[in-house]
Design brief:
The chain is an alpha+beta fold. It contains eight helices and six strands; from the N terminus they run H-E-E-H-H-H-H-E-H-E-H-E-E-H. The chain has two domains: 111 residues, no CATH class; 118 residues, no CATH class. Strands 4-3-6-5 form a four-stranded antiparallel sheet. Strands 1-2 form a two-stranded antiparallel ribbon.
């Protein structure tokens, strides 16, 4: 889900940039004209407003005007070639609309997620550092810890510090014998059971950065919450995938 979110942001940015160069301007009063290109008038307010929205800032008026003229020349040439009438342009508008809807939805959902990271959460993560952990990725998702205790799967024993961050974050929230469901991008989900925690002979390094750990835990819990929401959304939907005819 996080990967999908990043890709969506990139697509929206590219589409927005395309529209920036191709969107036609409205007619403006003659008294407000800043410059004219091929009979098309432009005002200072319109130009400065448009450029500030796209993160362009300059105190040099001639620089703004020169850049605006370059932009408007490209727009006029694109319209002269009837690019704004092409199906690809119409498709770009449709993509921008749909991507905009998705982005607003995800932004609102992310803002609505309430995450609380306690000192106990941080202490628990720190307690796993420099330990040897044994865990099992279960073949099936159990309904209870009692069912999980009897479940089979692929077992792994590894120094906690050597594990991938998502696995460390998941394991640090467990006690031996308990399990948790991990939600990944799309509809994939699986259960991991913590089997054993053992101390190692490795010497402890510098004191852990609690603020950094808090941020990591917050990001992880937020991502898992969004992934769980998306999985529920998909499970509740009626989806039919037609088989290909060979």
């Amino acid at each position: 889900m996080k990967y999908l979110y990043y890709i969506l942001a990139i697509v929206v940015a590219i589409t927005l940039l395309s529209l920036f160069f191709l969107w036609p301007e409205q007619k403006i009063p003659q008294k407000d004209v800043l410059f004219t290109i091929n009979g098309q008038n432009y005002t200072r307010d319109t130009i400065t407003s448009q450029y500030s929205k796209f993160g362009y800032h300059s105190d040099n008026a001639s620089e703004i005007i020169d850049t605006a003229i370059s932009r408007e020349l490209l727009i006029q040439e694109a319209q002269k070639q009837a690019i704004d009438k092409e199906e690809s342009f119409k498709a770009a508008l449709k993509d921008y609309y749909e991507n905009g809807l998705i982005k607003i939805l995800l932004d609102r959902k992310n803002d609505a997620v309430q995450i609380e990271i306690t000192d106990g959460d941080i202490d628990r993560y720190i307690s796993f550092l420099n330990t040897l952990v044994s865990f099992t990725r279960l073949d099936q998702i159990p309904k209870s810890n009692q069912e999980a205790a009897k479940a089979t799967g692929i077992s792994t024993t590894s120094p906690f510090n050597d594990l991938a961050l998502p696995v460390k974050l998941l394991l640090s929230s467990l006690s031996p014998g308990s399990f948790k469901i991990k939600y990944d991008t799309g509809n994939e989900q699986y259960a991991i059971r913590l089997d054993k925690i053992q101390p190692t002979m490795n010497e402890a390094g510098s004191a852990p950065d609690r603020k950094k750990i808090r941020r990591i835990l917050d990001d992880y819990k937020r991502e898992q919450s969004l992934n769980e929401w998306y999985t529920d959304l998909r499970n509740q939907a009626s989806i039919t995938i037609q088989k290909e005819n060979h």
